[in-house]
Each structure stands twice: as C-alpha cells, then as structure tokens.
Design a protein that fits this description.
Largest interface: A-B, 41 and 38 residues
Distance between the termini of chain A: 71 Å
Largest sheet of chain A: 12 strands, mixed
Shape of chain A: elongated
Number of strands of chain A: 24
Order of helices and strands of chain A: HEEEEEEEEEEEEEEEEEEEEEEEE
Helix content of chain B: 55-70%
Distance between the termini of chain B: 26 Å
Oligomer: heterodimer
Radius of gyration of chain A: 24 Å
Largest sheet of chain B: none
Strand content of chain B: under 5%
Chain lengths: ~280, ~220
C-alpha cells in the first residue's frame, strides 16, 4: 500500500514537472514577406541560430525559448527584419537561451549574433555577418558572398565557400577553412590555430595570420600560388619544391621563412605567425 | 524598490537626478550601492579621458586621407548599431567605443603612414626612421593603454555579463602579449613592412575585443 502511494506521488510529480517544462518552453513562429535582397538580423544572447535558404520572398523565423525569462522581439521595416532576444529580470545563460531556426531568401543579407551556441549557415548567396563572444560558427556551401566572422574564442569552420570575400577574426578560437576560395580571404587570430585545406583558387589574395597559433595549409601539387611564409620564432615547413623569387619583403631565414611560387602563381598566399609553426603541406 | 528595479533605472540614473526611492534603496543595499559607486567612478574617468589633449581634427583627417589613399582603410560599410536595441542601456560605457577606434587609428599612425613597396624603397630617400621616438611617445600615450583601461572594459563586462568576464580577461591578456611582441618587432626592425603590418593586426584584434565587450548583443 505504502509502495503504491509512493508510486502515485512520483507519477504526480513527474506530470507536474513535465507540465511546468512545457509551459516554460515556448515555440514562436514568425513570418515576414520581403522583397529582393532582404536584410535579416537575429540578435541572440544565448543559444543557437540556424540559417537556411527558402523561398525568394519569405522569411520564416522559429524561436524556441527555455523559460519565461526571455522574450523574442520582432520588427519589420520594408524588407528589413530584426529579431532580438530580450532578456528579462533573472535571466541567465540557461534560462535566457533561445534557439532560432531561420529560413530566408537565398540572396538575403543576414547578420547573426549570439554569445554562445552553434551559429550554422548553409547554402546562402547573400552577405553574411556572424559574430559572438563564444559561439561555434559553421558556415557551408556559400557562393559569391561576403562572409564576415568575428569571435572571441569560439571556433570557426567554413566549408565550400566559392567566390567569397571572406574575413575572419577570432582572438583565440581555432579556424578551419575547407575548400574556401575567392578574391579575398583574410584570417586573423591571436592564439587560435588556422587550418586551410583547398587549392587557394585563382587570382585571390589569401592572408592567414596568427600570433601564437599554428598555421597549416594543405594544398594539391597543382595549386597555382605565390606563397610567402614567415614565423618569427616558430618553425616553417614546406612540402613543395617552389620556384624561388628574386625579391622578398623580409630576409629569408632557413626554417623560419620562405617565399616561392607554384604553377602560374595565380593567387597570393601570405602565412604569418609570431611564435606558432607554419606548415605548407601536400594534400 | 528592489534590486531589479534599481538595475532597470541605472542608465537613467547615471545621467539624471536620483529619486528618493532609489536613494533609500542604495542606502540599504550594499550590492547596488557598490555597483553605483563603480559606475560613478567609470563616469568620472570618462570625463577625465575626454579632457586629455587630443590632436586637432586636421591630424586625424590627414591620417585618414593617407590611409584611404593607400587602400588600408575604406569607406565605412553600413553597420547596425547594436547598442540601439532594446534592453540594457550602454550609454554609461559609450565613451569606451572611441578608445577601440583609437587603438586601430593610433596603430596605423605608429606604423608610419607611408607604406612602401620594394620599388618604392629603392627610389624614395628615407630621411627619418619610420618609427621615431616621438611617435613612440605619442603611440604609448595613445595606444599603450595602461591596464586601468583594460580594467574598465572588464568592469563594463562584469556589470553586463558577469559570466563572460574571465573569458575577456584571458583574451585581453593574449592580445596584449600580441601587441607587446609586435611593438618589439617594429622597434627592432623599423623598416620591416611586415612587422608594421603585424602590429596593425594586433591592434585590430584588441579593437575587436573592445568592440565586442561593448556590444550588448554579445553578452
């Protein structure tokens, strides 16, 4: 008898807990009709944001909140959409979390901000600005767009970015670029590692710079590049036999720096670190 | 009035008179009282900072024109003002924003506004080292911000996003080490274009960090 009473009490407690949870968790869907080249901003304090392409004139934002300590504010002015997570009293990283799923026209310019969580973008063609203190940034399958990423220590991964104008700045987050090419690719870090895997395209300016982080570039033997690599205090390794250059902007020190060209030297590649290691390796 | 009410009216309070209700709460609440004391201190420092002799607008215009002509900076892209959104008011810390900008502008100034190529170096007679002692002095006063300024940034973070303070502290330390190494490189190799570029990168990192610290969206 006592046993069954305990079981009943437990069951009631579970039901109440689940009910409370379902009240605290909320899902809000917002739809906005927009014109071409819409501008969408999602500003989140804590939580993930996922962005995918949808139809040409509709923005759909689904926000999932964990508690009543945070509200989602929305506004639309023409084709400009602003979504803000609005923390209320007593909000913290846990109960202030909001997860967003955004579906926007492929050509939309999108600004995503979150202090934490995953910022995931795929298959977009408009300009992207992605920022946050500590998010994990994952951008893939983006074509002919500006991709600007800034993080404090969140890791950044870019995959299959074609014809992009790419600027990444992270103080201590590791940065991974897979098949990223375009007229301008600039990566700057203080302590994070930078890894590039691809062919450096044709006719682009690539600059990978870190203070203490290692830099590794994996490229195919038929890459067409003009490479300048230099580490002030770290080792520099090169798997390729390159055509030497007559002039260099700095004195070449064996094992610490090299300059040279491969193929038709179509793209300029600058690799710089102060105390990290640099390796140009064959893929 | 409770602590939450107090926090809500803090921004207005910094710029206007304090209500009797607020004063009563501050007398009875050591936490809020300490917070207000900190904010008052920051506001006082801000006024002093503004009073520091600043180069004439002509100097900044010249630097900007030079940098534009060399393609080092471009016309600003339209950028949303994150501080304009609803929620917390960052006005008490708004004075710190120009500090971030000054970091980059000053770094460029330090690095010598004349950018040279190989062929330039052959043709141009250099009459003075790119980094002179005088410029170093200016740069140190302008850029080599003492730790107190970093501390003020950290204080601002602590008020708005306490859980992020340690992270900002670590990253500031790393960036400052970056700047020290880069400055040393420039001093040792004043004609090394790469070293100057490196210094600029270091200051841009710090400017970004300041910018992020002041951006309410990144709490």
């Amino acid at each position: 008898m006592e046993m069954s009473q305990r079981a009943a009490t437990l069951a009631v407690a579970v039901v109440v807990s689940v009910a409370s949870l379902s009240v605290a968790q909320g899902k809000k869907e917002m739809r906005f009709n927009v014109g071409p080249r819409a501008n969408v901003t999602v500003m989140n304090q804590f939580g993930s944001i996922s962005l995918k392409p949808g139809s040409a004139n509709l923005v759909i934002v689904t926000a999932t909140t964990n508690s009543s300590n945070v509200e989602v504010d929305q506004s639309q002015t023409g084709s400009r959409i602003d979504i803000h997570s609005h923390l209320l009293g007593g909000a913290n990283e846990l109960n202030g979390n909001v997860d967003y799923e955004v579906i926007a026209p492929p050509d939309a310019s999108v600004n995503l901000h979150s202090g934490s969580g995953l910022l995931h973008v795929e298959r977009m063609k408009g300009d992207l600005t992605i920022e946050g203190a500590n998010p994990t940034v994952d951008v893939r399958e983006v074509t002919s767009a500006h991709v600007h990423v800034r993080t404090l220590k969140g890791p950044v991964t870019l995959t299959n970015i074609r014809n992009g104008h790419v600027e990444i700045t992270s103080v201590s987050g590791d940065i991974q670029l897979n098949s990223v090419s375009g007229p301008l690719v600039q990566v700057s870090s203080t302590g994070g590692k930078i890894a590039y895997s691809g062919d450096f395209g044709a006719g682009g300016d690539y600059s990978l710079i870190s203070h203490t982080g290692d830099i590794e570039a994996s490229i195919p033997a038929d890459a067409s590049v003009d490479v300048s690599a230099r580490s002030v205090k770290g080792a520099v390794e090169n798997d390729f036999a390159m055509q030497p250059k007559a002039h260099s902007m700095f004195p070449i020190v064996q094992g610490r720096s090299f300059v040279g060209t491969m193929g038709k030297a179509a793209s300029s590649v600058v690799l710089r670190t102060f105390s990290g290691k640099i390796r140009l390796k064959q893929r | 009035m409770n602590c939450m009410d107090c926090h809500r009216v803090l921004p207005e309070m910094m710029e206007g008179p304090r209500s009797a209700e607020l004063s009563t709460h501050l007398k009875s609440c050591p936490q809020c009282s300490a917070l207000v004391a900190d904010l008052d201190a920051i506001a006082r420092e801000a006024k002093q900072l503004q009073a520091i002799a600043e180069p004439s607008p002509r100097v900044w215009n010249m630097i900007e024109a030079q940098l534009r002509s060399e393609g080092l900076i471009h016309a600003p892209r339209p950028r949303r003002s994150w501080s304009a959104g609803p929620g917390m008011n960052w006005r008490p810390f708004a004075w710190l924003a120009p500090v971030a900008a000054a970091l980059v502008a000053g770094a460029l100034f330090l690095m010598n506004p004349r950018s040279t190529t190989n062929s330039d170096q052959a043709n141009v007679k250099v009459t003075a080292p790119p980094v002179t002692t005088g410029k170093n002095e200016v740069a140190k006063s302008l850029l080599g911000r003492p730790p107190v300024e970093d501390q003020q940034i950290l204080d601002a973070v602590a008020v708005q996003a306490p859980m992020m303070k340690a992270s900002y502290e670590d990253n500031l330390r790393s960036v400052n080490a970056y700047i020290r190494d880069a400055e040393q490189s420039v001093e040792q190799n004043p004609y090394d274009e790469e070293a100057r570029q490196y210094l600029m990168e270091a200051y841009e990192q710090k400017a970004m960090l300041y910018d992020m610290a002041l951006s309410r969206s990144l709490r």
